[in-house]
Specification:
Distance between the termini: 27 Å
CATH superfamily: Sugar-phosphate isomerase, RpiB/LacA/LacB
Largest sheet: 5 strands, parallel
CATH topology: Ribose 5-phosphate Isomerase B, Chain: A
Helix content: 40-55%
CATH class: Alpha Beta
Radius of gyration: 14 Å
Structural class: alpha/beta
Shape: globular
Strand order of the largest sheet: 2-1-3-5-4
Length: 148
């Protein structure tokens, strides 16, 4: 299951992403926001990151105007590896090398066609494992030390 979240700047793109996920049969949980009324992105980033951190959802997609704020908030949660991705190549590398479990997208700078290409690449790309898994373990150790 995919956790979805957005602020007012990501609402339109999230609604288009939901249509795509429905078409391809990917189950999601929409954590809001549910309209274009001004709101604060940390509210929705927290909901999505908590859901992925607790393994209620396997992955998360967050959308705000730039994607940057959502990334910052999501990475405050244990077990979250969020990346602000802008194209397929960045997405493939983020998944293959860092096994990102949340992607953040820019509602201002991305249309649904690019978002769909990114989501497809993210889902299809396999984590490389090996030395990359060793790095994930290093990240987990840092989390243990700093996220009490």
């Amino acid at each position: 299951m995919v956790a979805l979240g957005n602020d007012h700047g990501g609402f339109k793109l999230k609604e288009d992403i939901k249509k795509y996920l429905d078409e391809v049969g990917i189950v999601y949980n929409d954590f809001g926001s549910y309209n274009e009324e001004r709101t604060d992105y940390p509210i929705y980033a927290q909901k999505v990151a908590e859901s992925v951190s607790k393994k209620e959802c396997e992955w998360g997609i967050l959308i705000c105007r730039s994607g940057h704020g959502m990334t910052i908030v999501a990475n405050k949660f244990k077990g979250i590896r969020a990346a602000n991705v802008k194209n397929e190549e960045e997405t493939k590398r983020a998944k293959a090398d860092d096994n990102v479990n949340i992607i953040t997208l820019s509602g201002d700078n991305m249309d649904i066609n690019e978002a769909v290409r990114i989501i497809r690449a993210w889902i299809a790309t396999e984590f490389k494992d090996g030395r990359y898994a060793e790095r994930i373990k290093m990240i987990q150790n840092i989390e243990k030390e700093n996220m009490k």
